[in-house]
Write a structure and sequence with these properties.
The protein has 96 residues and is an alpha+beta fold. The protein has three helices and two strands, in the order H-E-H-E-H. The protein has a two-stranded parallel ribbon. The longest helix has 10 residues. It is globular, with a radius of gyration of 14 Å.
Length: 96
């Protein structure tokens, strides 16, 4: 939301960008990690959001990127497995 972006800009020294999670304004393989906290349950295309985040992660074997996702939609294990493949590890699978 605009209010959340404004609050972050007041608190952080670095750059804050607002964008669609399925159309991230960053180069592919630009990050080592991504955190999707309480995001996926608010996105119609959760597979697209995971795929977009995955494209932005480092792909080299030594620095393979990681995604940490938390929220109500994490139970959608199939979407995570479909997009992340071998990178998927459902930490809370036994609790669902």
């Amino acid at each position: 939301s605009r209010a959340a972006v404004d609050a972050l800009r007041r608190r952080l020294d670095g750059e804050v960008r607002q964008a669609s999670v399925t159309e991230l304004p960053f180069d592919d393989e630009a990050f080592d990690a991504a955190v999707l906290g309480e995001v996926l349950e608010h996105v119609e295309d959760d597979r697209g959001a995971l795929a977009a985040a995955l494209r932005r992660l480092a792909a080299e074997e030594e620095t393979t990127g990681r995604i940490a996702a938390a929220g109500h939609a994490v139970y959608r294990k199939q979407a995570s497995e479909d997009v992340l493949g071998r990178r998927w590890r459902g930490i809370l699978e036994g609790l669902m």
